[in-house]
Structures are given as structure tokens and as C-alpha cells.
Amino acid sequence: MNFVLHGHAVSGGITIGYAHLVTTARLEVAHYEIAQDAVEAEVQRFESALHHARDELGLLKQHIAADAPPELEAFLNLHRMILDDSALAEVPKELIRNRRTNAEWALVQQMEKLVARFDEIEDPYLRERKADVQQAVERVLKTLTGAHSLAEAGLAQERQMIVVAHDLSPADMILFKRHHFGGFVTDVGGVTSHTAIVARSLGIPAIVGLHHAFQTISEHELLIVDGAQGVLIVNPDPVVLAEYRLRQSQLGLERERLKRLKSTPAATLDGTPVELYANIELPEDMREVLEAGAAGVGLFRSEFIFLNRDDLPGEDEQFEAYRNVAQAMEGRPVVLRTLDIGADKAINGDGAGSIPNPAMGLRAIRFCLAEPQMFLTQLRAILRASHYGKVKILLPMLAHVHEVDQTLALIRQAKQQLDERGEPYDHAIEVGGMIEIPAAALALPIFMRRLNFLSIGTNDLIQYTLAIDRTDDAVAHLYDPLHPAVLTLVAGTIQTATRGGVPVAVCGEMAGDLQLTRLLLGLGLRNFSMHPSQLPAIKERILRTNLAEVQALAQRVLRASDPLKTKELLARLNA
Ligand code: PEP
Ligand code: MG
Q1: 363 lines ligand 1 (CB under 6 A)
Q2: Is the dihedral of CA 92, 93, 98, 99 positive or negative?
Q3: Which atom of ligand 1 has the smallest separation from the CA of 197?
Q4: Does residue 294 contact residue 532 with C-beta atoms inside 8 Å?
Q5: What atom in ligand 1 is closest to the CA of residue 396?
Q6: DSSP string, 313-330
Q7: Contact indicator for 451, 392 with CB cutoff of 8 Å
Q8: What is the CATH number of domain 3-24+150-255?
Q9: Would you say 226 and 25 are in contact if contact means Cβ atoms under 8 Å apart?
Q10: What residues contact 449, with CB distance under 8 A and at least 6 apart?
Q11: Is the pLDDT of residue 349 over 50?
Q12: DSSP state, 388?
């Protein structure tokens, strides 16, 4: 049966491939139906994986080193007990038989049920034991999925797979960077959620907010993802398929054509230069940054190196990551944002579920100032990397000037600690702030006095101005960069900063939106930071822009009092 689902477009392009269903709990676990006559074989497969995991634990116990901590044996015993418990040893078999589902899926379903019960336990020690259940289950899963793990699926096969999930966290998404999937679709999520941002950074078609994709699509069904329109076609008929294949190859040619602009300097028709920088999450992203010909890294979301792990990265590990990026840019600017953890990017074990209102909670700079030792570690690592390139520090989520003052004091302290160690760093390192809370935009001069540069985070600025949770697809239709309040704050920040001689950039998703390039240019923006995959098209738009014309039209957009008029003026800007 063929059908079409509509969601929110996250990342453009067209991809055609086969559905691969994944759960948030275990990314590489597929869900598929087992034929009636294969059910007992599936139960057998589960049982032998369980035995294998138990045997592995036994072997590990036999080889415990003499100097190993005494808890290690207790820990292995605990995992063995977990795997012996009927909740994990028997219930999945019932699920396989009753629902004719594959073994991995049955096991993960049962694990999630158990883990949810742990969340309700008050005793913190017992609550923590949920991690042991997850680890024990992972051991079984590793054996189960071993033969068909995605890592072994091969690149060609991966490119034909489209990940279908109910929900994916930004931490899940970052793991996908290791793979080469053809596209992503999820049931929930807003277009500027960090999950969507990471999907966009992968440069492959993606759609969020499809509501029923995970329930209605089966493993291996043929899908067309139109990431520009937010349309997902399931089991397309041959005519539709041929049409999309044609469009797909046209888009491929277009991408190749744009690549030729790599070394062309970005400037408007009258020769006004514009700086085009790249946003990255991990040092591995630098290959695309260099391929896109970015003039700098405008936003290194450093928190992504803190995700998907049980410990915090130490100073040396962070230093290496930051230095790699600084060196790759060979003297061009690298704006390193300090840890913006919290909200939808939770460090392991610090689930947003337990925080009443995570986007407004102890996030970003607030979290860092509450954990000064952890913050100092990061600041030292950044300072050390500044010896290897033009590194700048960017502070997220500023609302109060005392947050800047306290951070500047910590930077002085970090510098002093490095002086004592005799470690080199850039003594004149610049410190900038993100303008992403309306309070900071409205009280801009007091921030400008303390900072060397500003960067407008439009994703959060829109979230906090319009009171819409950027991760919630139920309010995603209210996300509107053209809302007069948003435009007033963005335009006011650009104008006030420029007049005051403080460099200002936009590093939120607005900077990579082709529909908004001329508007932002007209409002005075000269530094855009975006995903590397968006950079060539934005550059081409800039090269074709008459600045005087767009300046006049942009002022009219600012004054427009009717959304229809705004749309009409925007269409004229982009004509
Ligand atoms: C923003 O808020 O616009 C921004 C760039 O930061 P992040 O998306 O990481 O919150
Ligand atoms: Mg932000």
C-alpha cells in the first residue's frame, strides 16, 4: 500500500531508500515481524545470545586482575543476576512468541519497561542500578545484532537506508555521524531542536514531526524523503519513483555546480565582503568545513564531545579536540562555544525528564558557573588550544551581566593556572557572548561593554521570544523567524552592535536559511555561520545580491504590520 506523510522539513534534498526502524534506547535495534514458522528459531537465537553473554561474564570474572578494584567482581555478579532474572530471561521470549517480533526488539521493549520502574525508585543508589540493567542488556544485544550490525552493513547498504524513529535525542543523532545513512525521519521534534540541527549538519534529507511514521512503516519498506517539502512517500508507485529519481539527480548536479564557488570570496554585487563561517559539533566535521571553503568556524558546539559517555572529558582530551580544529583552520577564526549543556542535550544520567522546565533551567552558562571546576577545566583546554590558531571564546545563554563578569574572572584564573604551569596560550584571546535570550538583546549595551564580539543564536532567541519549546512538534507551526518581535530583536542587535563597533554574527539556523539571506544582509549582517552543507548556496545568493536594493526592502519588512505584507516583501527580496 502506498501512502504519504507530512512533517516539518529539516534538511533539503531527496533521498530514496529502505526504511530502517530504530528505537531511541538502542540505536541499532531494528523492529521486524517474524514469520510464524520462524518464531521458535528466533526464541532460540535469543536464548543462545543470553547464554553467550552469561559465558562472557563468567570469563571476565576468571580473568580479573589482582590489582582490580574489589567492586569489579560484585559488578560482574550483579550483571549475571540481572541476566538470570526471569524479567529479562523469560519475558522477551513471550514477546517473541505472542507478538512475532524479533529478539532484539523484544529485549529492548522489556528493558525499557524495567528501566522506567527504576526511575520511580526514591533511593538514589537503587535508582542508579538502572544503568546496570542497560549494560547487561547491551551485552546480549551485542551478540544478537553482531551478525547484522550497521557497522558491518557496508557503506553502499547504509546509504540506501533511511532511519525511521519515533524520537531521537541529539546524543543519538551524533552517533549517526559515524554512519552514512541516506536520510532520517522522526515522529516528533521541532525544526530547530538539536536533533534536527545535527541531522542538518549531516547534510542529508531529514523530516521531523511525522507523528505516525514509526507505527505505520515496516522495516525495509521503500521510502522517498523529500527533505525540502517535509514529505515522506511510502511504497511509491513507479511513476512517482521515476519523477523523484530525476529530481534527485538534478539536485546532485546542482550541488556539484555550487562546489565550484569554494574559493570565490563572498561579496555582494557592489563588492561588500561577507564572512561565511561554519557551525560544527565535533572535530570530525572539519573535513566538510574545509571542503565548503568556510572563512572560519563561527560556532563549535563543544557540548557534543560531552555526550554519549559516562564520564566528563578531561582537560587533555578537550584540548586535543579544540587544537585539532584550530590547526585545521590554519589561522582563520575558530569560535569555540563553552559548554551549552542542559535542555535537550543532557549529559548521561542527567535526564531532562527530572527537571521541571529544562530549557529554562540550569542550562549552558548557568550550569558552568554552578560547576566552576568543570568550567575551569574547559577554559584551560580552550586557552591551551588558542596557542595553535585564532581561537575565540563564546559564552552561551547570557541573560545577566554578572554571568559575563564571573566568567571573565574564571578566565583570568585559568590563565593564571596555565602561567604557573608554563603553558602557552593567546593572552589576548577574545571573549564573545551569544545573544539568544530576549533580555540580552534588549539590554545589549551593557553586554557590549564587556565583550569583544556577539553572536545571535536565533534558535533560542525565537524559542524564548515566542515561548515555544523548540523541541516540541506540537508548537512547531508557531516557530516563526519572521515574527515582528523576532525581527525587531535581531535587527536591533545587529544595528546597535555595528554602531558600537562590536562585531556581530548570526549562528542560529536563520543564517543558513536561503529565504532569509537577503533580509539579514539588508538588516546589516555581514557574518553568517551555518552548517557547511548550506554554505555554497548561501554564498551564491550573496554574490547575486544588490545591497542597496535589499537594504530598502529589509527596512520595509521591519515596518510591516501585516504578516501577508511581510511574506510579499520577502518574496520581492528573493526574486
Ligand atoms: C541558537 O540558539 O541559535 C544557537 C546557535 O545555539 P544552539 O542551537 O546550540 O542552542
Ligand atoms: Mg542556543
Answers
A1: no
A2: positive
A3: 8
A4: yes
A5: 6
A6: --HHHHHHHHHHHHHHTT
A7: no
A8: 3.50.30.10
A9: no
A10: none
A11: no
A12: G
φ, ψ for residue 412 (rounded to 5)?
A: -60, -40
In the 3-class helix/strand/coil scheme, how is 126-156 assigned residue by residue?
Answer: HHHCHHHHHHHHHHHHHHHHHHHCHHHCCHH
Opening angle at CA 338, ends 463 and 452, nearest 5? 90
Closest ligand relative to 508 C-alpha: 1
Q: Is the CB of 403 under 6 A from ligand 1?
A: no
What Rg value do the Cα atoms of the chain yield, rounded?
Answer: 25
Indicate where the chain has its CATH 1.10.274.10 domain(s): 36-145
- Number of Cβ within a 10 Å radius of residue 209: 26
| pLDDT tens string 467-514 | 999 988 889 889 999 999 999 999 999 999 999 999 999 999 999 999
Chain Cα centroid distance, residue 31: 25
Give the residue, out of 305, 345, 365, 460, with the most ligand 1 atoms within 8 A of its beta carbon, to mutate for a pocket test: 460
* Segments of the chain assigned to CATH 3.50.30.10: 3-24+150-255
Number of Cβ within a 10 Å radius of residue 207: 30
The residues that bridge with 337 in the sheet, in sequence order, are 301, 394
pTM summary value:
0.78
CB distance 299 to 532 below 8 Å: no
281 pocket-lining for ligand 1 (C-beta < 6 Å): no
DSSP 8-state assignment for residue 33: B
The beta-carbon contacts of 265-273 under 8 Å, at least 24 apart in sequence, are 266/295, 266/539, 266/542, 266/543, 267/542, 267/543, 268/521, 268/542, 268/543, 268/545, 268/546, 268/547, 269/543, 269/544, 269/545, 269/546, 269/547, 270/546, 270/547, 270/548, 272/526, 272/547, 273/526
Residue 508 CB–ligand 1 contact under 6 Å: yes
Residue 165 and residue 196 in contact, taking contact as beta carbons nearer than 8 Å: no
Question: In the block, which residue shows the cell 532569509?
Answer: 516
Considering the segment(s) 36-145 as one domain, its CATH architecture is Orthogonal Bundle (1.10)
**What are the start and end residues of each CATH 3.20.20.60 domain in the chain?**
264-573
Residues labelled as active-site residues: 194, 507
Q: Which residues are placed with Cβ below 5 angstroms of ligand 2, an ion?
A: 436, 457, 460
- Take atom 8 of ligand 1 and give the residue whose Cα is closest: 459
C-alpha of residue 362 to centroid of ligand 1, in Å: 16
Distance of CA 207 to the CA centre of its chain: 14
Cα(261)–Cα(521) distance, rounded to whole angstroms? 19
Return d(Cα 141, Cα 374) in angstroms, integer: 34
* Nearest in space to 140 (alpha carbons), one of 60, 98, 80: 80
In ligand 1, the atom with minimum distance to the C-alpha of 509 is 3
Residue to substitute in 338, 340, 469 for testing ligand 1 pocket (most ligand atoms within 8 angstroms of CB): 340
Give the closest residue (by CA) to ligand 1 atom 3: 457
Q: What are the tens digits of pLDDT across the range 401-460?
A: 999 999 999 999 999 999 999 999 999 999 999 999 999 999 999 999 999 999 999 999
Considering the domain 264-573, what is its CATH architecture? Answer: Alpha-Beta Barrel (3.20)
- Grid cell listed for 299: 560556532
Residue 98 has pLDDT above 70, yes or no: yes
